[in-house]
Amino acid sequence: MALKTILTRIGTYLLVPLLFLLLWGLAASHLNNEVILPGVGQVTALLLRPTENLISMGSLAVNVAVSLARVLAGYLLAVALAVPLGVIMGYYGTVFRFLNGFLALFRPIPPLAWVPLVLAWFGVASLATLFDVQRGTAYLYLNNLKFSMIFIIFIGAFYPVLTSAIHGVNGVRRTLLDSARVLGASEGDIFRKILLPASFPAIVNGMRIGLGVAWMCLVSAEMLPGSLSGVGYLITHAYTLARTDIVIVGMVSIGVVGALLDLFFRVIEERKFAWTRLTR
User: Which numeric CATH code is attached to 58-279?
Assistant: First the structure.
């Protein structure tokens, strides 16, 4: 690839972010009020010191790690349940008709609406409670994984993954399945060699969307009682202290981590499912 083409692409990618930073800097300079809008340099300085203690709540790196653990716990639980359930519902019409009406009742409910009920169910119980760990390093890690937080994140990620799995299976051409049956393929062979490979692009896309929703549910989850760490809690606590710079740092860190995880899925789509472009 020519150097000119590479520089053109880099310039295209950086143009909008640079314009945004320029406008941000001009607006902050004009307002001259750090509570309303801190300067770019002030926020950048905090981002460049991720191990520095922030308002006695630990470092940005530690809070991001705690939030990432919570998101992955709820998200992986959602994927583990939604993918096989979606495949079964998409393949067997009877199962779809049996479960879809019931599941559709809960789909429109925002994850935040579950908070009062979740607190009544789980309180401040965590994985440390489940495994009866009461002290030590293991307690510090497991106690951060509250069941209430995991449930809120789980609900947010569950339905996008489930819907995409059902859609992916329904999108498999029936002629392929019928041809395999005529040639003597068993149901297990059809699942492994036709149904799952053909529906995987849609399933991965649903997993990508579900992960984004899980991150959006994070702040709500970390506002629940019992939370003393995490980026969401850091943002909420910084707001009460009028530390808008830390609020923006927390938002940027969520955006960066979310973008990196999204990039992971896009790389998988480009490398493993490039064949889907040939079918368009």
Answer: 1.10.3720.10
